Amino acid sequence: MDRRKTSFLINFSKVKREKQKIYIQDAEDLYEWLFQYLETEMNLREIVRAKSMFRELCGFPKDKKLTKEEELHFEHWLLFDYITVIGSRPFDLFVRSRQSEMSKYMVETAGLFMLMHLSPYRVLQSNDREHLLAPFQEERENAVRSLGPAQRLESGSLIMARIATVGFEKMMVGPCITISSQREQEALEELRTHEKMGTKSYHRFLKEMGISFLKYRAENET
């Protein structure tokens, strides 16, 4: 009897691992597909409008040429957070137009991507393959892997990141903003001010204004 139970548990773990591989592969394919959509199908006027709004949100001069790092942040903000002239986010439009071509795991992951926004986390531990993060003002820990550009994080840093559940794991989607240690108190005060307004208002602020924390970023991101 004990042997049968042990065998079942081992098989269940194997099935879970195999299923997780599919979730991760589908998430990576979805991410790549999304940026192909950005390059080939996004309306140019919409991109110009979005870039103007992005500069304004981040406090950049209107004629500022964005750095490579800033362009990367802009593209992720454009896809996941920016609201088009018709009142939809580009990622939502992408999913609606491609949903029939997606696997069930990809559809599930896409739905969770729709809900994510830049949120504050404290880096507890970091290495090439995994980051251990604690949400702002919480003791709960999350082990996350990166989806997209490789993340260079230092233990103790305050970051703004998009975290989503992919299968049974947490993933950091796209680049995070590392807050400068010299400006961390300013960033924390702004976060606490909005957090006091209630959970719903706070999450709306992060979705709409999270990218503005680029103004607090560490110098090595410029």
Which key features would you list for this structure?
alpha+beta; OB fold (Dihydrolipoamide Acetyltransferase, E2P); 222 residues; five-stranded mixed beta barrel
Commentary on this structure:
With 222 residues, the protein is α+β, with helices and mostly antiparallel strands. The protein folds into 2 domains: 13-113, no CATH class; 117-216, OB fold (Dihydrolipoamide Acetyltransferase, E2P), CATH 2.40.50. Helices cover 50% and strands 16% of the residues. The chain has helices at residues 2-41, 44-58, 68-80, 90-98, 104-115, 184-195, 199-209, and strands at residues 118-126, 131-135, 142-147, 158-166, 169-173, 177-178. Strands 1-2-3-5-4 form a 5-stranded mixed beta barrel. Strand 1 (118-126) and strand 2 (131-135) form a beta hairpin. 28% of the residues are buried.
Secondary structure topology:
Elements: H1 2-41, H2 44-58, H3 68-80, H4 90-98, H5 104-115, E1 118-126, E2 131-135, E3 142-147, E4 158-166, E5 169-173, E6 177-178, H6 184-195, H7 199-209
Parallel strand pairs: 3-5
Antiparallel strand pairs: 1-2, 1-4, 2-3, 4-5, 4-6
Helix pairs in contact: 1-5
How would you briefly describe this protein structure?
The chain is of the alpha+beta class.
Give the CA-CA distance, first to last residue.
62 Å
Work out the helix count: 7
Looking across the biggest beta sheet, what order are the strands in?
1-2-3-5-4
**Whole-number radius of gyration?**
19 Å
Q: What's the main sheet like?
A: 5 strands, mixed, barrel
Q: Label the structural class.
A: alpha+beta
DSSP strand count: 6
Strand content: 15-25%
Helix content: 40-55%
Low-confidence stretches: none
Number of domains as seen in the coordinates: 2
